[in-house]
Amino acid sequence: MTATIAPLAPSTKPATPETPSAVIDRVSLVLDAFDGPGRLTLAQIVRRTGLPRSSAHRMLERLVQLRWLRRNGRDYELGMRLVELGSLAVHQDRLHKAAIPTLHELHAATGLVVHLAVLEGSDVVYMEKVGNRMAAAIPTRVGGRQSAHCTAVGKAMLAFADESEIDLWDADVLPRRTKYSISTHAQLRSELAKVRSHGIAFDREESLPGFGCVAAPIGDPGEAVAAVSVCGPMNRMMFDQRMVAPLRMAAMGIWRAVEGGPVRVAPTLQPMRPLRGRPSTAAMQLA
Fold this sequence. Notes:
Layout: H1 20-32, E1 40-41, H2 42-49, H3 53-65, E2 69-72, E3 75-78, H4 80-92, H5 94-110, E4 113-120, E5 123-130, E6 145-147, H6 152-158, H7 185-198, E7 201-204, E8 211-218, E9 226-233, H8 241-258, H9 281-286
Antiparallel strand pairs: 1-3, 2-3, 4-5, 4-9, 5-6, 7-8, 8-9
Helix pairs in contact: 2-3, 5-8
């Protein structure tokens, strides 16, 4: 007699549900795919996130329902809810609010594009950009990022940052945006030492060919919670006291406004004078 072996019944064990943190991670992956201008197709999002196509599609459709994303035919783009939340976060920020009047005054005084930025890891994140038609020639945007070591605002903050908190020093070679970009740790350390000495940072075509920037740190002596810069074509930039003085006044005015100080000095272009070092902490305390 031949024994008949019954086929195994399919498992009825339910699939393990995703944890809340796993869901958040996947949502973050999808939203991070939209890190630049323009729309993305489902295929592009799958490539950028590494998610299965079916999972990515379900998540995209749910994010569209929540207004976090917007669908246009087969393309997806950031939705109005994210714009609303992002705008609210920026405008509620104390530093941003305190800086706005001074940024516009600095732009009026120099005629150049003005940036306010903070440091996040080894990148700068732009909180504000003020400028006229020249602003379109400089490919920065509010919320956008750039490598800190290639920018004046980045160097102004890196000079006073804790090295242990910045993964920039783990890289063997620093990425270059132009042929003038700093590419070695030795070059960067030398540059940051100058920034600490003078309290000012320069970008001479290091992030964008044909353009330069001058930046000053914002914060108490010896620290930089943010930085402010002026940028423009190299033939209009002044890498001396004429530009340094209004920048220092702007940085000081912003920090006083953040701390609730009553005095605000409008930045003005200065006559050409030698570049002087940043006042020491002791001198600031005696003043």
